[in-house]
Amino acid sequence: MDGDQVPGHIKSVKRIGISSKWDDNAIELAGEIYRYLCNKGIDVVLEDDIATRIGEKGIRIRRMNVDILICVGGDGTLLRALQKTSSLPEPPAVLGINIGTLGFLTDVPMDRATEVVGGLLKEYEVFERERLSLSIDGYGLPPATNEVVLVTAQPAKMLRYVVYVDGQEMEHLRADGLVIATPTGSTAYSMSAGGPIVDPRVLSMLVVPLAPFKLSARPWVVPMNSKVEVELSVEKEALVVVDGQYTRTLKKGEILSVTRHDKPARFVKVGEVSFYEKVRKELS
């Protein structure tokens, strides 16, 4: 990833955590990184789910008080780590090791994992990306780094919903669902649904209908400081999915509220690849 949203912050590493996809190749690489860091005298901890697989002790990811959290897997692994560490007083900066799948968030190829990790041991640079704060009738949901998606709980059934921005009605739609995304998430589900690609320096939210039954329905870009609310207008249950990691139901009469989160997602900067270069490379 690039550090082009906010200036980077140079820090020295004190403690590193490791999380991994539940996959043999990923866990093997996580073990290699763990042993490499131990040999370097670094204070390093493993997520408990993978620690048992490599014969070590671990702790729950929600309790990882670390400077850097290394995530071995794909974008989903990294998004899960960001979500589960979001309630920590100071969430760690994450570093994604890509084990072969397409990813905009996982920067480091597996054959360069120890090389890159070794280069961070004296100092590393952190940059931030905006997240979304979510609630349903005041009940807090995990924050979204990519997007929150509203979809029907019944396959092949359409939803009817109303979207409000700062109290003003934006759209009243019949559709398969709705995506509300950050600029970081503009290259994920939102893009697949026809939304624009947004430079992460643009402080905005994307509101993208999913297969709307209305020719005039188009994606919207609204200020990040807006309050977006979604209300179902029929007696159908919908699913609210946060970054593909967390799911909750939404019923008629309940309000899904989306605002800017007060704690941005934090990433370890690796290399100097620009956002535009990454888009060209990954989507060519």
Give a brief rundown of this model.
This protein is an alpha+beta fold and 284 residues long. Helix content is 18%, strand content 38%. It has helices spanning 24-39, 48-51, 75-84, 113-119, 189-192, 275-283; strands at 9-11, 15-20, 43-47, 58-59, 68-73, 93-98, 108-109, 124-129, 132-136, 139-144, 147-152, 159-165, 168-175, 177-181, 204-210, 220-223, 228-232, 238-242, 246-250, 255-260, 265-268.
Helical content band: 10-25%
Biggest β-sheet: count, sense, barrel? 6 strands, parallel
Strand order of the largest sheet: 4-3-2-5-6-7
- Counting DSSP E segments of at least 2 residues, the number of strands comes to 21
> Superfamily at the CATH H level of the largest domain?
Probable inorganic polyphosphate/atp-NAD kinase, domain 1
Task: Walk me through this protein's architecture.
This protein is an alpha+beta fold. It has two domains: 9-129 and 264-283, 3-Layer(aba) Sandwich (Rossmann fold), CATH 3.40.50; 132-260, Probable inorganic polyphosphate/atp-NAD kinase, domain 2 (Tumour Suppressor Smad4, Sandwich). The protein has six helices and 21 strands. The protein has helices at 24-39, 48-51, 75-84, 113-119, 189-192, 275-283; strands at 9-11, 15-20, 43-47, 58-59, 68-73, 93-98, 108-109, 124-129, 132-136, 139-144, 147-152, 159-165, 168-175, 177-181, 204-210, 220-223, 228-232, 238-242, 246-250, 255-260, 265-268. The strands form four sheets. A six-stranded parallel sheet has the order 4-3-2-5-6-7, sandwiched between helices. Helix 1 (24-39) runs parallel beside helix 4 (113-119). It is elongated. 44% of the residues are buried. Residues 1-6 have low confidence and may be disordered.
